[in-house]
Amino acid sequence: MSAMSNLVERLPEVAQVYLEGRSIDEVECIVADLAGVARGKAMPGGKFAQQTHFYLPNSIFFQTITGDWADNPLDVGFTEPDMVLTPDFTTALPAPWTADWTLQVIHDIDDQQGQPVPFAPRNVLKRVVALYNARGWTPIVAPEMEFYLVAPNTDPARAIEPPMGRSGRRAAARQAYSMSAVDEYGPVIDDIYDFAEAMGLEIDGILQEGGAGQVELNLRHGDPVRLADEMFYFKRMIREAALKHDCYATFMAKPIEGEPGSAMHIHHSVVDMETGQNIFSDAEGDETPAFGHFIGGMQRHLPSVIALLAPYVNSYRRYVPDFAAPINLEWARDNRTTGLRVPISDAAGRRVENRLPGMDCNPYLGIAASLACGYLGLVNATAPGEPWVGDAYTGDDNIPRGLGAALDLLREDTAIREVLGTEFCDVYAAVKDLEYNEFLQVISPWEREHLLLNV
Prior knowledge:
This is Glutamine synthetase family protein. This protein is of the alpha+beta class. The chain is about 35% helix and about 15% strand. The strands form two sheets. Strands 7, 8, 9, 10, 11, 12, 13 and 14 form an eight-stranded mixed sheet that branches. β8 (about 205-210) and β9 (about 215-220) form a beta hairpin. α4 packs antiparallel against α7, α7 runs antiparallel to α9 (about 365-380) and α10 (about 405-410) runs antiparallel to α12.
């Protein structure tokens, strides 16, 4: 059997169907960096079929969003050693927006001794899931993706504008759940559906959110690593669909002044591996102590992982009252003003929705951080506060309001550091410190307008 034939046999069915009767022109060998940006190499299909792995320097995890590099806090001196990247063939999916027949494959990342690289985001999530599994639990997540379609913006000094719709008018705000608002940019949505079908990705639903040109995409529930892989792919694909129609898709937490921010809400449940039952519900369908402990863990530890859920200075612009974004860690049933919401469901579907993550976070790290908080609540039997009654925006703010304060909390929480991995936490903090310091060198229009001649 030829190397190419052997490769095709190892691909998921969706990739085999996509390639039926065709040869693989190119393979994109990719991983997600700390920001969730795809890094890797592209190579001809024939070459990919003949190799078992390839190498990338570990410096890809020390690069800031601006392209600078943080010092490695784990090593003495700068040596930039290679990591070993091995394809995870279960993730091999088409890249249907390309001009030729291209596959994209997410790779596992180990060091040269065969150990998982501890600061690779996908490995961080795998680490947290393994802790659940060691206790006999299977964590289940269902993420939501909010994003904006915006007009092309090639000048960073210009404010971001909504896209031009099919009516010839720019999208308007406050049109939540409007079908006609979604139809305004129907060709982009059509391509998102078509690309998703070609890639074998399931969409649970698409709706218009509250912002001008803001869309929400819901995913099915399932395994955290698989769902994070899908979100990583969805972000790439949605951007490509938008570019086909002369607009941008942005996952910034707060891209447009005066409009709602974009969240990555995560729904959580936990299943007993032996019985297959949701541990948040008992045999009578009532809430269990574990359900409360999961909430308690999130209330106790979420402030320490805000730096992962809100990873940029822009992220904290989203945490404002009355914009469908949380400002505290209160929990309640069927109440969207709280940071932790318990949706209406039957006993089997009982779950906790974490409304704190922004859509700008790395999906691997956002899910890992959220699961880590719930895990600590379960193992430490952390009691939750009383459920909030009424409008939670009237309560006190109890989450960090800036990246610097959030990083301090991440450094101080030894329990969270142990769950996520101390090496990862040190690397992440080093990169974010450098990003924050770079931001502080920028003088904003607000400062020039109000301070230049007045102070």
